[in-house]
Every structure is written in C-alpha cells, then in structure tokens.
Design goal:
Serine Threonine Protein Phosphatase 5, Tetratricopeptide repeat, 68% helix
Length: 216
C-alpha cells in the first residue's frame, strides 16, 4: 500500500514494512477522512494483521462497511470487536447501531438491554431502537432520560430531535436539533438532519444557509 497521502510518481514511496499498528491506524484514519475507502480499508486490515484484537481497526472496518451499505460486514466486524472486548461500551453501541441500520431490531434491543442505564448514549440508543420498533412513548422516555443525564451532548440531543421527528413532533424536533447544533456547530450529522427537517417544514432557504450539510 502507498502511504497515507498520494505522492507523484517521481517521488519516493515510503517503505511501510516497518510500520507499527499505530502507524497503520493513523494512516487508515487519515485516508478515511479523505474518503479514500479502498486505501483506508487496506490500512485498517494491515493494522489488524499486526494486532488481531485491535479495537480501533475493527471499529474502522465496521464503520467503512456501514458507509458502503454492507450491513452484514459492519455487523460482523462489530461482533468481533464485542467478542474480543466484552466490556467496551463503544463497541456494543456500534454493534447495536449497525443492527438497527439492518432493521434487525430485536437483536439490537438485546445488545442494548445489556448496557448501563446510567449512561446517556446507551439510553439514547435504547430509545431510538424502541421508536423504530413502534414503541413511541417508551422510546421518548428513554431519549428524554438520556438528555437529563447529559444535556450538553450534541449526539444525545440530536437523537432526541430525530426521535421527536419520527413521532411527528416536528417543531419540538427543530428546537432540539438547533440546541444540538449550538452545542457542536461542526457536527455534520446534526447539521444534515436539521437541514432536511427545515426543508420538510417548508424553509427552502435551509440548503443555502448551510450548503456544507449537503455533503454530510
């Protein structure tokens, strides 16, 4: 594999034979940031060959699989991470998220049931899953509990906003998403969701006001 940044043909290609796990991981994350999926995948796999239990590489491969709409691949990489790192909360949340994306909601619910009820992100994930299962009231209770636990979390506020939107409470959803955006103005997921909600509400200036959200 070439190094993390593409070089002109007449420039020396760096020798990667001595790269460590952390070096390959940094290269993979850099390539992923530039949306060079094939290069990022190769780098994550190279890192994993050096450390088969490397949780960051497993997470990266799961994330890339999800971006490529390979739900089964994302789930398998996440399951491997959970198997190797049973106590890692992030791995379990990622697995539950990929199961939800594949609409394997009962399996996602089983994963979430094992997570701590005092963790805001776990509560938000549980609420999201319940809403997708059609349990709107119970799902909203979990989402509001998540915000009570961590009111300054952009991620948790965004989850509540999406939940309200799914419950057809669009004005309340807009308020929560605007709060989320104020907490982290650079979070592209929040900006993307808010822009589409505003468009649904008839605010056709939303795309012009935040054109970068189209690329989120």
């Amino acid at each position: 594999m070439r190094p993390a940044t593409h070089r002109p043909d007449n420039e020396r290609v760096e020798d990667t034979s001595t790269w460590s796990y952390s070096t390959w991981l940094a290269a993979a994350q850099r390539e992923e940031g530039f949306n060079r999926i094939a290069e990022a995948t190769a780098a994550y796999q190279a890192a994993l060959r050096l450390d088969p239990a490397g949780i960051e590489a497993l997470s990266g491969l799961a994330r890339i699989s999800a971006r490529m709409m390979d739900h089964d691949g994302a789930i398998e990489w996440s399951r491997r991470a959970v198997f190797l790192h049973e106590d890692d909360l992030e791995s379990r949340l990622q697995l539950a998220s990929h199961l939800q994306d594949a609409r394997r909601l009962d399996e996602a619910s089983d994963v979430l049931d094992a997570l701590p009820v005092g963790d805001a992100r776990s509560c938000a994930a549980r609420g999201t899953c319940m809403i997708l299962q059609g349990h709107m009231n119970e799902g909203m209770r979990w989402l509001r509990r998540a915000v009570e636990l961590d009111p300054q979390s952009c991620e948790v506020r965004t989850a509540l906003g999406i939940g309200l939107w799914r419950c057809h409470k669009r004005m309340s959803a807009q308020r929560e998403l605007e709060i989320a955006r104020s907490l982290d103005p650079h979070d592209m997921h929040t900006r993307f969701v808010l822009m589409h909600l505003l468009l649904e509400l008839g605010d056709f200036s939303a795309g012009h006001a935040d054109p970068a959200a189209f690329d989120a």
